[in-house]
Design goal:
Order of helices and strands: EEEHEEHHEHHHEHEEEH
Shape: globular
Number of strands: 10
Radius of gyration: 18 Å
Strand order of the largest sheet: 6-7-8-3-9-10
Low-confidence stretches: 1-8
Distance between the termini: 46 Å
Structural class: alpha/beta
Mean pLDDT: 88
Strand content: 15-25%
């Protein structure tokens, strides 16, 4: 299976928001964030942190092209998300992988079938390439013995891993991870940290091509020595903090709560 074609201009940001108003995924009339200005360059590794219900999942839905801004301009690979975006930005959206908190699996399908879903939908040619791809993704998660089980038969960590495998199925250029460490024990969290670091550097599962990654979390502690760029969500605002070295001594009070070691 070939990767989807890239833009001719590699300097085009993977994601760009200008004066964007973000609304709730569940209620489009509810404003969650206002005046968001954010550029994610190709190859960036961002972590966006915030307290509960600060809008992290809603921001990820917009970044993935699932929703569109109530105000302002949001572009994926230079393509604006606007009215009628469902068809117009489909190719750009297929270049983005998204893992929501909990994996958001289809419970009537087996774990392997969940992984296969985007491949069968977009590339079902009946060939062996798809089967090999599914096998490689199952191996990535370490879930070979349970591939034919259903989501209800495995714990939350494994469901989250299957969500990751499904998001990687089409070999995306951008990977959005919403609360990937939520509810995990230290061993499982360590697996995620290593996998994400490998994907940023260029993992064999995506043909060794470095991914652009955005992670959301409730704090920054486990990501402080891994991510390259940081931001906070507070009082309906997107607050960019800059690269790692700028975190030390930053004046934002919320940073002291989410990264108390500084």
């Amino acid at each position: 299976m070939d990767a989807l074609p890239a833009d001719a201009t590699e300097a085009t940001p993977a994601l760009e928001m200008r004066d964007v108003t973000v609304t709730s995924v569940r209620d489009a009339t509810q404003v969650i964030l206002e005046g968001v200005n954010w550029t994610v360059a190709r190859g960036d590794f961002w972590v966006v942190a915030g307290l509960l219900r600060s809008g992290k999942s809603d921001l990820m839905a917009l970044a993935a092209g699932i929703t569109r801004p109530a105000r302002g301009t949001c572009k994926l690979f230079g393509k604006e998300i606007a009215a009628g975006f469902e068809q117009d930005t489909l190719r750009a959206r297929l270049r983005i992988g998204l893992v929501f908190d909990g994996g958001q699996l289809l419970h009537h399908l087996t774990l392997a079938e969940n992984i296969a879903l985007p491949l069968r939908y977009h590339f079902d040619d009946g060939g062996e390439d798809i089967d090999r791809r599914i096998k490689a993704l199952v191996e990535l998660t370490g879930l070979e013995p349970w591939a034919e089980s259903h989501p209800a038969d495995v714990n939350r960590n494994w469901q989250q891993r299957i969500g990751l495998a499904r998001a990687l199925a089409l070999k995306p250029e951008v990977l959005l991870l919403d609360h990937p460490l939520s509810g995990l024990d230290p061993r499982d969290a360590a697996w995620w940290l290593e996998i994400v670091s490998g994907l940023v550097a260029g993992h064999p599962i995506v043909d060794g091509k470095p991914l652009t990654i955005v992670v959301t979390d409730d704090d920054l502690i486990l990501w402080q020595n891994r991510a390259r760029q940081f931001a906070l969500l507070k009082d309906r605002q997107f607050i960019p903090l800059g690269p790692r070295e700028k975190l030390t001594g930053h004046s934002e009070p919320l940073l002291q709560e989410l990264l108390p070691r500084w």
